[in-house]
Amino acid sequence: MSEIKKNHKRPYPTLAKTLTGIVGLDEITEGGLPTGRPTLICGEAGCGKTLMSIEFIVRGAIQYSEPGVFIAFEEKIDELANNVASLGFDLMKLQDEKKIRIDHVHVDRSEIEETGEYDLEGLFIRLGYAIDSIGAKRVVLDTLENLFSGLQNQAILRTEIRRLFSFLKEKGVTAIITGERGDGSSFTRQGLEEYVSDCVILLDHRVVNQISTRRLRVIKYRGTVHGTNEYPFLIDEEGISVLPVTSLKMNNEVSSERVSTGIPALDDMLGGKGLFRGGSALVSGTAGTGKTSLAASYANETCNRGESCVYFAMEESPSQIIRNMRSIGIDLQKHVDSGLLFFNASRPNLYGLEMHLVAMHKCITKYQPRAVIIDPITNFINIASVSEVKNMLVRMIDFLQEEQISVMFTALTLNTIVNEQTDEGVSSLVDTWILVRDIEFNGERNRGLYVMKARGMKHSNQVREFTITDNGLNLVEVYLGPDGVLTGSARQEQILLEQTGEAIRTQAVSRKDREILRKRKVLESTIASLKTEYESVEEELNKIYIEEELKKQILDKSRAEVTRFRGGEEIEKTKEKTDNKSRKKDKE
Amino acid sequence: MGDSEGFLESCGEDTPALAYELRLFISGASPNSIRAVENLKAICEKHLPGRYKLEIIDIHQQKELAEFDNVIALPLLIKKSPGTERRMIGDLSDTNRVLKGLGLIK
């Protein structure tokens, strides 16, 4: 309790509280029961009053080193010890260690003769002695009302009970008084609530639709805030667990880490990275569309990463799922063996909706998984209305988000006429919604997968064909033919058709290529011939030119020679010169 | 009263050694306790002269006995013997009931 005080640093002193150690109850009461004051726990027979109070004593003794006294008006010590032995509480050992003290007060009207005025001083002394002998901080009186059946003088009893409560307060013990629920509006048959003014907790055991649910409500807790709703609670081999499931806050931290779904192609559809860690995903679809396979694939992937996963199977037994998944190449058995995968199989009508929530909560708290699968949520409809299921799932998602646990729900859509928006009404709650649908066409059924929504991530808007093969799940591109979406054999046909077209096209292309080549060759040869022609013309022209030149030279020479002859020079020398000159010209 | 005396006489004749073992739990000197002691003594002297053994226990002095003897209401008179154990609570002012409890009248 001192820890609680430290945790809640407030400017003014608040009511000191004593932790009960009962899972969930301390959250609802924000720290436990009022320290040093009596608390009344009331409820009908068999609603768990005795168990809750004994757990308060035992947990106090074991977890908080606060010794406790249990005054049993109904059961004998060995009966009590037997009753709680199944919870792993060894009352006798605790009693020997002086951590608790159990005192059976036997009151039987037939054995007692009332002969005048009396008081309950004996009980006070007994209680006081028990408290002092072990230094008890906690006291339980179960059920004080038995005094009323054993003793006749109501006036005395009422005075004495009033005195008892002030005695308990004086002793400074945190006390629990249990009382049977009375008829009408009173919480207890004898109106004990008028004596206990600090804290009153009502336990309830209701049967709705043949399914029983235990609920707890803090009716009154003076001087402090507390949860006011009805909280379901569970009694199992570990005692009582209450689930303060209705969290009104929405301040969960979110992760931007992405985790694979185990199907690479689906990851691709979800922006290439998969789902957000701590996010919620819904896989919905009609019967036999592979929802469980998808979920199992996700579980398998989670375990492959070395993370733990809890699989809540509501329809199939674990061995059935393992066998079925083996056929598509997913080996879940090895993960079960390695302890990473834990199956929790239960029929929805095993207990009420709230109890399922409590049970799941407990299981998740125990195994601390990174991913949770609930397959399918649809079956909850059998035991509750849609709105109740939705409420429960909101709380589930809320809790999982808080714990940063990814969750995948599967849901069965019953009618094939698309009624996608009402899958238990949860489609609006989840972060990612994957829809698997039958596509019936051309005399066969195939599966189409859509990502209906994926909050906060880029996702494909395409319909993909979803195939289940011996090697797991895969997504194939869906063909959009002239008649709409093509799947299955129609898709294969289309592929063939396109392959044929491709071949023909290739053929055509190569023919054209050859044509072009030929044309080029023709052109090239034409160009070559033209070039030759040009060369010859050029040569011809050149030849004429040279001849003309030569002619001119020769003419010039002869003219010069003629002149020289006229001048009287030697013919030989001139000839040589002329030769050299012409050679030079040639070179040029 | 006449009945009880007749019963006593017959008792005395048949089993003269019949001893009443009585244990009276009281809490200190509370008015109820004082009255109970006085009333019991008067009854015993009148109906069981010399045939009873009375132990008066102040529960405040011997608290551990409270659980042992299953004491709740005080004053408490336990008739240990003869016959079955009987318990009477209160200040023993209702003599008829006390005698009935002690098995002295039917």
UniProtKB/TrEMBL annotation, chain A:
<keyword id="KW-0677">Repeat</keyword>
<keyword id="KW-0597">Phosphoprotein</keyword>
<feature type="coiled-coil region">
    <location>
        <begin position="520"/>
        <end position="547"/>
    </location>
</feature>
<feature type="domain" description="KaiC">
    <location>
        <begin position="16"/>
        <end position="256"/>
    </location>
</feature>
<dbReference type="InterPro" id="IPR051347">
    <property type="entry name" value="Circadian_clock_KaiC-rel"/>
</dbReference>
<protein>
    <recommendedName>
        <fullName>non-specific serine/threonine protein kinase</fullName>
        <ecNumber>2.7.11.1</ecNumber>
    </recommendedName>
</protein>
<dbReference type="InterPro" id="IPR030665">
    <property type="entry name" value="KaiC"/>
</dbReference>
<dbReference type="GO" id="GO:0004674">
    <property type="term" value="F:protein serine/threonine kinase activity"/>
</dbReference>
<feature type="region of interest" description="Disordered">
    <location>
        <begin position="566"/>
        <end position="588"/>
    </location>
</feature>
<keyword id="KW-0808">Transferase</keyword>
<keyword id="KW-0378">Hydrolase</keyword>
<dbReference type="InterPro" id="IPR010624">
    <property type="entry name" value="KaiC_dom"/>
</dbReference>
<dbReference type="Pfam" id="PF06745">
    <property type="entry name" value="ATPase"/>
</dbReference>
<dbReference type="GO" id="GO:0016787">
    <property type="term" value="F:hydrolase activity"/>
</dbReference>
<dbReference type="InterPro" id="IPR003593">
    <property type="entry name" value="AAA+_ATPase"/>
</dbReference>
<keyword id="KW-0175">Coiled coil</keyword>
<dbReference type="InterPro" id="IPR027417">
    <property type="entry name" value="P-loop_NTPase"/>
</dbReference>
<keyword id="KW-0418">Kinase</keyword>
<dbReference type="InterPro" id="IPR047221">
    <property type="entry name" value="KaiC_N"/>
</dbReference>
<dbReference type="GO" id="GO:0005524">
    <property type="term" value="F:ATP binding"/>
</dbReference>
<dbReference type="InterPro" id="IPR014774">
    <property type="entry name" value="KaiC-like_dom"/>
</dbReference>
<feature type="domain" description="KaiC">
    <location>
        <begin position="257"/>
        <end position="489"/>
    </location>
</feature>
Automatic annotation (TrEMBL), chain B:
<dbReference type="Pfam" id="PF07689">
    <property type="entry name" value="KaiB"/>
</dbReference>
<dbReference type="GO" id="GO:0048511">
    <property type="term" value="P:rhythmic process"/>
</dbReference>
<dbReference type="InterPro" id="IPR039022">
    <property type="entry name" value="KaiB-like"/>
</dbReference>
<dbReference type="InterPro" id="IPR011649">
    <property type="entry name" value="KaiB_domain"/>
</dbReference>
<feature type="domain" description="KaiB">
    <location>
        <begin position="23"/>
        <end position="104"/>
    </location>
</feature>
<dbReference type="InterPro" id="IPR036249">
    <property type="entry name" value="Thioredoxin-like_sf"/>
</dbReference>
<protein>
    <submittedName>
        <fullName>Circadian clock KaiB family protein</fullName>
    </submittedName>
</protein>
